[in-house]
Design brief:
With 389 residues, the chain is an alpha/beta fold. The chain has 14 helices and twelve strands. It has two domains: 249 residues, Aspartate Aminotransferase, domain 2; 131 residues, Aspartate Aminotransferase, domain 1 (Alpha-Beta Complex), CATH 3.90.1150.10. The chain is 38% helix and 15% strand. Strand 4, helix 7 and strand 5 form a beta-alpha-beta unit. The protein binds pyridoxal-5'-phosphate. Pyridoxal-5'-phosphate (PLP) binds next to helix 4.
């Protein structure tokens, strides 16, 4: 489907709402019925229509149609957060005694889901290095019901071979799910590689303005209907119509935002590559990535997220660098206008920090929509402030 058509027209029925160009926010909790027969029909099958906004709502429907089409999926469910879009489908599709094979170090709350939350319901997870297909196959047991991927990872940028993993899973009747927040559907299309469920934090690129928390999962209608009729309605992590509207507004500029961000990130990385105080840049398309060919094969571009490691990294150096930034903001999340940094050490106590741990020394950078020169100048003065030793 044509991208401009999806972003500007799909799901929008302007003649039904006064020919308004912008979609309406249908700010209602419930919908009326004219006959008991109609009401009974809606109660019996909520997936088919509007009954109550914990389920569906017309503003939500416009967004669902666009997000499904962007992923090349049959349907989409949207949620009040990205982590709900990951947690709710998993709770819906697994039961006690089932096992999950998951890549190492996915998003922090995804780790907690698999390590702390699912064991309460008797669901066990094996973590694997997703770049090693032999290890993946060895981790699969008769009870494995789900293989969970995050490619690229949003801190270390490891990638998994989506087509190969889907092939292994499909041959055994195992469901596959990916967190595609890094790429967005514009830069990676997991369903085309045979992945079953694609989750994203819509908080990031889709909404794109650091003002909404939201999530989406796409996949086959039959699977999403099962999720909707049970855990979706029961857990009640529905997206508010106003927030859906903000995402619809964000989507209009998704393509130009992402392309501009990618271009700027390339310029910033080029600057960092030659800087004497930078040890490493971690980025899927970086020459140092051992899986560069795979990343280039399955992803169109990368967007604005990458990590850096300072030379002779220490807590003092990392803190000096981050504290010295004048324009780039220190914060979690990414995907909005503003460039951000997030040092991994902020999530660790001083005693826990180990300068020899390759994850502890990472400083994640998100390049936003500011000019490359403006971002580079800020990085340059912050790097200059780091003591040399
Ligand atoms: C932010 C994020 C999430 C969680 O999304 P929320 O909208 O914050 O709930 C999940 N995965 C990745 C990769 C993320 O960056």
């Amino acid at each position: 489907m044509n991208l401009s058509y999806i972003l500007n027209e799909l799901g929008e029925e302007r003649d039904q709402y006064f020919n308004a160009i912008a979609p309406p926010v249908i700010q209602t909790s419930n919908f009326k019925f004219n006959t008991v027969a109609d009401f009974r029909g809606a109660l019996a099958d909520e997936y088919q229509g509007n009954l109550y906004s914990r389920g569906f709502n017309p503003t939500i429907d416009i967004l669902r149609k666009k997000l499904a089409a962007l992923d090349g999926a049959e349907d989409a469910l949207v949620f009040s957060s990205g982590i709900a879009a990951i947690t709710v489908p998993i709770l819906a599709l697994l039961q006690s005694g089932d096992e999950v094979v998951c890549v190492e170090n996915p998003y922090s709350w995804t780790i907690r889901l698999f390590k702390n939350f699912l064991p309460k319901f008797g669901i066990k997870t094996t973590f694997i290095d997703g770049t090693d297909l032999k290890e993946l196959e060895a981790a699969i047991s008769d009870s494995t019901k789900l293989i969970y991927l995050e490619s690229p990872n949003t801190f270390s940028f490891d990638v998994q071979d989506l087509a190969a993993v889907a092939k292994i899973a499909n041959a055994r009747g195992i469901l596959t799910m990916i967190d595609n927040s890094y790429c967005s559907p514009l830069y990676q299309q997991p369903i085309a590689y045979g992945i079953d469920l694609v989750a994203q934090s819509a908080t990031k690129y889709l909404a794109g303005h650091s003002d909404v928390v939201a999530g989406v999962v796409t996949g086959k209608k039959e699977v999403l209907e099962k999720i909707f009729n049970n855990e979706y309605l029961n857990i009640g992590a529905a997206l508010a119509p106003q927030n859906a509207w903000l995402i619809l507004r964000g989507l209009r500029t998704l393509a130009i935002r992402l392309d501009k961000i990618s271009e700027t990130a390339d310029q910033v990385i080029e600057y960092l590559n030659q800087h004497p105080k930078i040890e490493r840049v971690l980025h899927p398309f970086h020459a140092d990535n051992k899986d560069l060919a795979l990343a280039r094969k399955q992803m169109k571009k990368c967007g604005g997220l990458f990590s850096i490691v300072l030379k002779n990294s220490s807590l003092e150096k990392i803190e000096t660098f981050c504290n010295s930034l004048q324009h780039i903001l220190m914060a979690v999340s990414w995907g909005g206008y503003e460039s951000l940094v997030m040092p991994a050490c902020a999530g660790l106590s001083k005693a826990e920090f180990d300068p020899n741990n390759k994850r502890h020394v990472l400083i994640r950078v998100y390049v936003g929509l500011e000019d490359a020169d403006y971002i580079i100048a800020d990085l340059d003065q912050a790097l200059a402030s780091i003591p040399v030793f």
